[in-house]
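User:
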Amino acid sequence: MAALNSRRKSNPVKRTLLQFVLILYSAIVVYPMLWLLLASLKGSAEIFEHPWAMPKALHWSNFSEAWYGAQVGKCFGNSIFVTIVSMFFILFIGAMAAYALARFTFKGREAMSAVFMSGMMFPVFLGIVPLYLLLANLGMLDNYYGLITVYVAYSLSFTIFVLTGFFKTLPHELSEAGMIDGCSNFTVFWRIMLPLAKPGLIAAGIFNFFGIWNEFPLALVIISKDSLRTLPLGIQNLLMVEHYQANWGALFAGLVIVMLPTLIVYLIFQRQITEGLTAGALKG
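Assistant: Predicted structure:
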């Protein structure tokens, strides 16, 4: 009883310490984003003269300069297109592969799973040169087909890893009941199992969105046309342009434009991300 009482007394201290650590960590994460937002509303001279102060006047023209002058708006639309199309194929192909690996027993299943998992340990930079030569031979450079194909290929390993663990947690009785009712394997997957895997799909989709939206080295190698640049490539161009023009406010405005979609998506789906990942982990 004495040990139980002492444990209860220590809980508030641990809770307070944990809250302090979380508040400190939140401040470390949030403050740079707030500083970036404030810097995007300042003039270039004010950024260097008063970097920590509030802006004296709101320079909303920085955003229009970045959006239109540096063609960040065009790059924004390109990134949306590439990200949405890539995520569609990643989740569709990844879900089917994960379902087969999780629910069916066949020869070579373990070896196939190992091959998919090995893709998560392969650094992107090691494959850039052979990837460039392969795409050049296939005529897939400087177009969205090549970029989307590469994004899908590089993202499948993680997606299959997440969804395989989630599909294993779904009860076999549901698929058996569907088969008894005359459903084919694909019908069971499409109408029964896939809707139940929605939390896992959301979690995998959000992480893939973050990765594709902010991806730079592969896009730099595959895309060279100005009209096809994605947002990270647009920010690189903005950096070069505004560096020589000394328009740092427009540069920070472009960085805010890059940051906002990922921040908004995370704030909207943060609960689904946690539920999707922990569901597969706890039930598995």
